[in-house]
Design brief:
Shape: globular
Radius of gyration: 21 Å
Bound molecules: CU-O-CU linkage, copper (II) ion
CATH topology of the largest domain: Immunoglobulin-like
Largest sheet: 8 strands, mixed
Strand content: 35-45%
CATH architecture of the largest domain: Sandwich
Number of domains: 3
Length: about 475
């Protein structure tokens, strides 16, 4: 069972509690009503709850999380069965500080194995959530996250091999916001003006449950967009600057983001944290698992303005992402985003070049003609060095390539210049477009050990577009 499909069957036994049965007996009237929940901008943007530590020591914050089934009210009047951290979708956000350790005790109450990967984190290999390193049903694991890296918008999610397309789709994902002093000095918007947004496409069955249709080639495509678990919501905003932390939480869908008809958004950070300077963006490609921190200044708009964040690549229900309704408050703010946000660290010269061919063969997605095999080691970089890795896409699908445990810089795209929004900061995931070649410079520090790299289109990763690397000391 190389791909672990044996356990997928368990997922068909999704929670069907008595409470969901109510919506199964949908009357004609209720059916008519059922169409309305898909109308965009009906619901206010849900704020994602934050997880509170159960204990604080002088050096660490300790959290307890139940990986469990739950019911989410995604469509008003319906209950959608989910898997969730603490039973909610998206899971509760962890806010951590650089230099203070987070200890997250994960309790797997599901009937199948699970594990937790901190995506974008510098984490020792034993705590990374390697796909073969799982928490059995009923078991627990205490993940230690040192948080010895710059402020960044990270996220955590399930990574048990072979079924992440189903477990993430059903809710096992959450934000992990890391803050540091350097960022604090910039006085960027905080508190209620610092807003995580988890964007994902879904489809629904008549009873309100998430519908999942497997498509290994294209990856899953839903017909409805959810932000923080609500269908294309609206958000009332003050006339001031906001920081939005966007996560593409879709299984396989890429977006092109556009505000109104191309209004200004200021990108301040990417996967690995702040850029060296802010970058104006009017159209932003956004691939699965990428993060994007945008500052939007609503002082540019009159009270009463309704501004829609669009997906230019969408169709019907996947065009409108959300709407900002500009109110009256907040007009006296005079804060500006500083021109210089973070110094660019010098990097050692690359000591190796590696090339990874991305393609389809023998019924599976492959890298260099191989599918995932945890008994084989595919690359052994030396600790503390940098290497040039080229991903060469030999297919007409997008492959968002991701390396665990390490960050990289984007050096080159065969399709044209690398946008400053990608060039001026660290990344951990990069969209490799159809037939494109992309070269990155990866830095194999601070930890050594065994990790994976893979396509983050989850249907591709599950079957079985993932290899292993071991950083050697
Ligand atoms: Cu989001 Cu293997 O990671
Ligand atoms: Cu990762
Ligand atoms: Cu892929």
């Amino acid at each position: 069972m190389r791909n672990g499909f044996a356990s997928v069957a368990l997922l068909c036994a999704l929670p069907t509690g008595g409470s969901t049965r109510r919506s199964l007996i949908t009357s004609a009237g209720r059916r008519a009503q059922a169409r309305s929940p898909f109308t965009p901008f009906r619901r206010d943007l849900p704020r994602i709850p934050e997880l509170l530590p159960v204990r604080r020591t002088s050096t660490a914050d300790v959290y307890d999380v139940q990986i469990q089934q739950g019911l989410a009210e995604v469509l008003p009047g319906f209950e959608t069965p989910i898997y969730g951290y603490e039973g909610v979708y998206p899971g509760p956000t962890i806010r951590a500080r650089t230099g203070r350790e987070s200890i997250v005790r994960q309790h797997n109450t599901l009937t199948f194995e699970s594990n937790v990967h901190l995506h974008g984190g510098f984490v020792p290999a034993g705590h990374d959530g390697h796909p073969m390193d799982v928490i059995p049903a009923g078991g627990s694991f205490e993940y230690h996250y040192p948080n010895l890296q710059d402020a960044a918008t990270l996220w955590y999610h399930d990574h048990a091999h072979g079924r992440t397309s189903r477990t993430l789709y059903h809710g096992l994902m959450a934000m992990y916001v890391l803050e540091d002093d350097l960022e604090r000095e910039l006085e960027l918007p905080t508190g209620e003006y610092d807003v995580p947004l988890v964007i994902a496409d879904h489809s629904f069955n008549r009873d309100g449950s998430f519908r999942y249709l497997e498509n290994v080639d294209l990856g899953f495509r839903g017909d409805t967009l959810l932000v923080n678990g609500a269908v294309s919501p609206r958000m009332r905003v003050d006339r001031r600057k906001y920081r939005f932390r966007l996560l593409n939480g879709s299984n396989s869908r890429s977006y092109t983001l556009r505000l109104g008809r191309g209004r200004k958004m200021l990108q301040i950070a990417g996967d690995g944290g702040l850029l060296t300077r802010p970058v104006v963006r009017r159209r932003v490609p956004f691939h699965p698992a990428e993060r994007l921190d945008l500052v939007i200044d609503f002082r540019d708009y009159a009270p009463g303005t309704e501004l829609v964040l669009h997906n230019e690549d969408g169709e019907a229900g996947t065009v409108a992402i959300m709407r900002f309704d500009v109110g009256r408050g907040g007009g006296s703010e005079d804060f500006r985003v500083p021109r210089r946000m973070r110094p660019r660290e010098p990097l050692p010269e690359p000591v190796a070049d590696r090339r990874w061919e991305l393609g389809f063969g023998f019924g599976a997605w492959q890298i260099n003609g191989k599918d995932f095999d945890h008994a084989r080691m595919d690359a052994r970089p030396s600790h503390g060095t940098t290497e040039r890795w080229t991903f060469a896409n030999r297919s007409n699908r997008v492959h968002p390539m991701h390396i665990h445990g390490f960050l990289f810089r984007v050096l080159w795209r065969s399709s044209g210049p690398v946008h400053p929004g990608e060039r001026l900061g660290w990344k951990d995931t990069i969209g490799v477009l159809p037939n494109e070649r992309v070269t990155v410079q990866a830095w194999f520090a601070p930890y050594a050990g065994k990790y994976v790299f893979h396509c983050h289109a989850l249907e591709h990763a599950d079957k079985a577009m993932m290899l292993q690397l071991e950083v050697m000391t």
